[in-house]
Amino acid sequence: MKLIKLSALLLSAVLLQGCAGLFIAGAATTASVVTDNRTMKEQLTDKNISLEATGLANKAPYQYNMRVSAVTYNGKTLLMGQAKNNQLNQDFEKQIKSLNGVNTVYNQIRVRPLLTFTQINNDSWITTKVKSSLLAKSELNGIKISVFTEAQEVFLVGFVTEEQGNITAEVARNIKGVKEVIKAFEYGQGGSVEKE
């Protein structure tokens, strides 16, 4: 009975993930689930880490003092957003490092005032333009690349070859309104975060 419940849960997770990809970026990304080299267990662990980080950001003392997005691949967690002061930023990073399954934290949280609603909308528009431009690149067909924008800084995350990573960064760099591109790609076994 437990095996049936576990199988149903895993199947639901796969189906929901496929629907999200279809909804966000169209048919071109529906095959991206196949290109993810993580096991289903690793994907669920990574998703849980990201959800825990987001949940932590919505609790005292971080709530209203930080705005954080988190994405995790293979236990490597990228933190993006803003913190009102450096102490909050450091404390938050320490909390994330202590989460089960976290191997490395790339803290890209900027100490600055939190973004306004207008700035958040502008970032959403930049993300949309980057994603749309990436869909037009035949060299990237079937590749799952996540795009996040914070204060006009574009973060690119996913499993790619070095060539695909360079193409992706070049596309993002040429979008109007982008101040900086940060590649947080997984190349083979390694992973890195580098500014362009």
UniProtKB/TrEMBL annotation:
InterPro entries: BON_dom, Lipoprotein_DolP. Keywords: Signal. Residues 1-27 form the signal peptide. The keyword Methyltransferase does not apply. Residues 45-113, 122-189 form the BON domain. Transmembrane segments: none annotated. It holds the Pfam family BON. This is BON domain-containing protein. It comes from Aliivibrio finisterrensis.
